[in-house]
Structure formats: structure tokens, C-alpha cells
Amino acid sequence: MRNKIYLISLFTAFLFGSCVKNLDINPEQNIDASVALENAEDIRSALIGTYAILHGGALYGTNLNLVPELMGSEDYCQWRGTFQSFRQIMNKGMYVDNAEASRTWIAAYRAINVSNNIIANLNKVEDEDLRKEFEGEAKFLRGAMYFELIRLYAKPWDNTGTNDGAGVPLILTASNDETTASVKKGRDNINAVYTQILNDLKDAEKNLPESFDGSERFRATTYTAKAFLVRVYLQQSKFAEALALANEIIESKVFRLNPAIAATFSNKFTNETIMELYNNDQNNAGESNDGLTTFYASLSGIGRSDIRILAPFTDKYEATDERLTELTYEGVGRRSGSTQCGKWKAYGQKYSCN
């Protein structure tokens, strides 16, 4: 079977040979998705590969967890690492060339572009039920990324306003360009972006299955779409809608709280988490790499302790509160003695999205 090249791993193929003319070729920075995505198996592979983009350091593997914390209260945590891009975020003084702002934007639109290409080629999936499932998953991935983008790169939703301010570019058509068309299109308004997010997540909720088994348990389900919709409704102060959907998830009896609070972070695929993305030791190994464990941990041979937890935050908890006793600890590795977040202690650890 010939190897197929998917949009999620675009690269230039160089031809080597004795003839000079074979080397004198124009570089190709894109491929035609209509050729790469030929059947249901191709589309399934592209969907699964999109999760690899999501768990990278630019998205859930680091920035979609770390950046909002640094943008939050100055009394909660402190960046003390050497990366100036994170220091700028903590100091609320970002320059136009901030690396975290650009790489998160690029990675999110890269995932959106793959989703758009999948949607554009769904006609090649003969089985109607499978086609709807793939459509739901692609729309979930697109809707989730737009939700993260609008919260990071635009003003917050104003429940009393028109929300006609600048949001982010809505790219809903397929592109073969790896850099995507987001740099060529103006920003749509905030209301339009939220409308698209809701449409995508509602379609995903309707078409996604209740579960995936075995090695594909990381894939989004109808409950994942419901959970993201709850977050969107909360962002919009639509509390009745958020309550109704949250109750649907609880009353399904599919999920339940873990006996130990730390188990949600230290164990994979527990009964409490609705969606999980995780790295193995090879994805995120060593103290020089990206990753939440790299930045948060201070253990023997693990972590750089670039983030420390501050006293005004820990003082909010009673001494016996498990959120204090189980999810914070005194560092014993790099920069020992400071208070560290206890969520991420191993390099090959999952990063929950919900």
C-alpha cells in the first residue's frame, strides 16, 4: 500500500539523483487535500492526527493551561524562568513578537485548517453514520479551537453588549496552505465567532458517539461537546443553559468523581475526566523541553520549577483542604523550598481538557 501524506504533517519532498535537472525543482509547501484524503481511513487518520496538534506545547500541552494562569491574578502564581515570552505575559506587557502569542495562534489555526479539509472531503465516506461521526468530530475540534482563540485574542463576551468588537478571523473553508488563510483575512466580530462556536459544538453533540474504546479513548464524544458547550454558556453568562447541559452529563452516570482529588491528574482515563490529552515520556522528556511538568515541577530530576505558587493563593484554603494538601507541595528539585503545583509531576502525563 502506498504511503499517504496527510495535511497534519505537511513537508517538502526533495528528489535526489545524478541529474542536475532533478534537483532544479520548485519547492512545494502544500498538497491537495482532495488527493491526500481519499477515503474513510484517510479521514480517520487525519482526525486522530489533529489531536497531536492539540496536545503540543502551543496548545493544551502547555500554553492553553499556563498562559491563562499567568494572565490571571498576580497573587496566585509567578513565572521565574528564563523565557521572556512567558515573563511578558505575567507582567501584562507583551511585545508584538511574543513567541507564545504567535505559536498558539498558528497551532490553533493549523488544527482548524485540518478540520476544514476533513469537512470538505466527507463525501468520500460511504457509510452515512460514519460520515456524520467524522463531521461531528471535525466540528468539535474546530469549535474548541475557536473558543480558545476568542478568549485569548479578543475582549471578553459582554452579556449586556452587542459584541460587535474585533474577534478572530473565521476560516471555514479548506486550504492547502500550511500557514492557513488566517493572516490574509480580517477579524470577524465577537458575536459571529461565538455563533460559529455554538453551531459547531451543537452539531458535534448531535453526531458524536457516547464513547470510543481502547486506544481511541482520547477522542471527543457527545459528552465532550456538551462539556465544552457548558463552558461557552458560562462564558456568555447563560447560566440556565449551562446548568441544563451540566446536569445531562451528571445524570448520564457515565462519569463520577474520583475518591482522591489528585487521581484526576496522575491517572489516565479516570471516571472523572470527560476528555484527556496526554504525552508519553518521549513526547515531553527532560528539563529543556516544553510541557507543564517541565515548567511546574520541582522534584528530583524532574522539572525546572519555573512556576511557583504564591502564599495569597494557598492562604485561601483551610489547612485540611485536599486541594491544598494534595495539589501543592514543597519543591525538592530545582529551586527547592518554594510551593509548587502538584498537578503535573511526571513527564509522560495526561493533560485534561475537561
Question: Could you please describe the fold and organization of this structure?
Answer:
It is a single chain. The chain has helices spanning 20-23, 33-36, 40-54, 63-71, 84-90, 99-120, 128-153, 190-207, 222-235, 239-251, 263-266, 292-296, 311-314, 322-325; strands at 77-79, 276-278, 307-309, 328-330, 339-341, 350-352. The radius of gyration is 22 Å and the shape is globular. The protein has one domain: Serine Threonine Protein Phosphatase 5, Tetratricopeptide repeat. Strands 1-3 form a two-stranded antiparallel sheet. Strands 2-6 form a two-stranded antiparallel ribbon. The protein has a two-stranded antiparallel sheet with strand order 4-5. The longest helix has 26 residues, at 128-153. A hairpin with an 8-residue loop joins strand 4 (328-330) and strand 5 (339-341). The protein has 14 helices and 6 strands. 36% of the residues are buried. Helix 3 (40-54) runs antiparallel to helix 6, helix 3 (40-54) runs parallel beside helix 7 (128-153) and helix 9 (222-235) runs antiparallel to helix 10 (239-251). It has 354 residues and is mainly alpha-helical. 42% of the residues lie in helices and 5% in strands.
Topology:
Layout: H1 20-23, H2 33-36, H3 40-54, H4 63-71, E1 77-79, H5 84-90, H6 99-120, H7 128-153, H8 190-207, H9 222-235, H10 239-251, H11 263-266, E2 276-278, H12 292-296, E3 307-309, H13 311-314, H14 322-325, E4 328-330, E5 339-341, E6 350-352
Number of strands: 6
Helix count from the secondary structure assignment: 14
pLDDT averaged over residues: 87
Strand content: 5-15%
Highest CATH level, the class: Mainly Alpha
Strand order of the largest sheet: 1-3
**Largest β-sheet summary:** 2 strands, antiparallel
Catalogue the unreliable spans: 1-29
Order of helices and strands: HHHHEHHHHHHHEHEHHEEE
